[in-house]
Amino acid sequence: MARNNHVPKRVAQTKQNTFFGGAAILAVGIMVVKLIGMFYRIPLVNIIGEQGTADFGNAYNIYAVLLTVSTAGLPVAVSKLVSEANATGRKNQVKRTFRLALALFLTLGVLSFLLMFFRADLLAGMMHDSKAAAGIQALAPAVICVGCLSAFRGYTQGHGNMTPTAVSQIIEALCKLVVGLGLAFWLIRGGAGEDVAAAGAITGVTVGTIFALIFMLAYVFHWNVGRDTLSDDIPDRPGTILKDILRIAIPITLSASMVGIVTVIDSSLVQGQLQRVLLENPDSWKLYEQYVDFAPLSAALKQWRSSLSGGSAGGLAALSVQIEQNVPSAVELHALLESVSRTLYGNYSSALNIYNLPTSLMAAITASVIPAVSGAIARRDRRAAGRISGSALRITTLLAFPMGVGLFVMGTPIIKLIFPALTAEIAGPLLSELGIATLFVCMMLVCNSILQAYGYVNLPVLVMLLGGVVKIINNYNLVALPQVGIYGAPFGNVLCFGLCMALDLIIIARVIPKRPAYLPIFLKPAAASALMGLGAWAAYGLGSKLLMGTGILCAVDRTTQAVTGLSRAGNALVTLFAIGVAVVLYGILVLALHAISRDDLNLMPKGEKIAKILHIS
Fold first, then answer.
1. What is the DSSP string of 271-314?
2. Closest by alpha carbon to 161, among 86, 97, 67, 233?
3. Within-domain flag for 414
4. Which of 95, 75, 52 is nearest to 147 (CA)?
5. Which one, out of 30, 419, 504, 585, has a CA that is 20 to 30 A from the CA of 482?
6. Do 163 and 245 belong together in one domain?
7. β-bridge pairing 563-566 and 554-556
8. Which residues make beta-bridge pairs with 556?
């Protein structure tokens, strides 16, 4: 009698439900964390200001790279090895794998801590922001805590339990919100500088990791009570297990680290180039002279240049030499250059906070695409896999296009609404440029998920590497142009992610059978978004003229009593009105153009009900 190797239908269904249930728990956890992060970052910018935001961002970028190197691939490796050992009943193998992983996490965490705490000044100098050193030191303990957290998360995920990971991530985010914002506000009220307040805000991240680790320790200890049964299996040798961990973890870590490394390099180059062009070409000051007081910098520059010998060039290289020699005029000039670049980069960093919000919405789509497409491929249903891929791309365009166009059209009003502490005339145009990049980065993320679902794991990494190189080259050259300055930084994102999206779409067209037709996917959402953008622009302009005509909710010059523009409340009212018009108009256009189908909505939660309500077939 032939042996039946098939998994019973009920068991297979249970395992599938468990998998999707676990994925749903993690997806919900990610969305909650992103939402809490939004409530953290938006008021934080208004508390610590432009320069504090730059200090916060520079410190966090350093932390993110070291954190990724320490933890990106290891939890996946631990989860996989624990899951495999647990499935075969090798309890002793599970224990040894977890203990070795924890030791490895601790080692990497301690090394990262030592670097961040004792060489914070070196890392801050690398970012051309000496004021970020305090924030880097405040984040140093978090690397150790997150390393241990990653070991515990990998252990519980390896047992198929996703709940503690999601809960611990929410605990981290809540502590960051409450402690970080509380400390920043208290320090600013106490008269501390923006850099000190930024370090206080970033301390909330460290506190969050500590409390999340305490939760995971308690959970795992309680969870293991009664599960720690005797087993007679002989675990593999420590060297073999470590080799297996590294074999899985290293490729994942390299690909995950790339984005963070590119971000650090790019941030360092942008701020370094800003300082160089401000020093070597005062004509660049004209870009910002309406918003930045250059009188102290001008005086310091004259004093420093007068101290140079006749044959010396007054460039950044000469300034760096004198800073090392601790020449007072050079030190003072460098501090002022750094102050201006922190102000400019703080506006850009804050615009990036808003730009990152649409990409966080892609997490739900990317999380659902991979299992759905992979399942269709496993059934050898290429037509279904192509249909799901097309629906994912269409939903992404329907979400990303209006968000990108909205940011492009309403960049300055949105900055005035959300970040009154910023210089809207600088941050607004930066956000408008980033709005174009939003279209590309959202599409790229979903394209990457589709390629990964088809088994092309390395191609998206290579494409992103190429895009990162293009971004760095662009920003190094464009930001240094006196007539461009900080406004060149967002263009690097446009080029980078535009190239990545284009290459991903070309690869999908070449290597994936039954690939979706692109023209129907892009044409209708693009047309609806363009008309929506015109509607939002017209609504804001009309609302502004009406208010300024009546003088209600307007800013008035106290000397001449002339209306100079909308007040903060007036801008908020008109901006929200324009956004409301845009949402209604876009919804009508999407339905009128039949830009979405029932199959598309089925990929979304409650999609079937939404389709019935909207009468979409």
1. HHHHHHHHHH-GGGGGGTTTTS--HHHHHHHHHHHHTS-TT---
2. 86
3. no
4. 75
5. 419
6. yes
7. antiparallel
8. 563
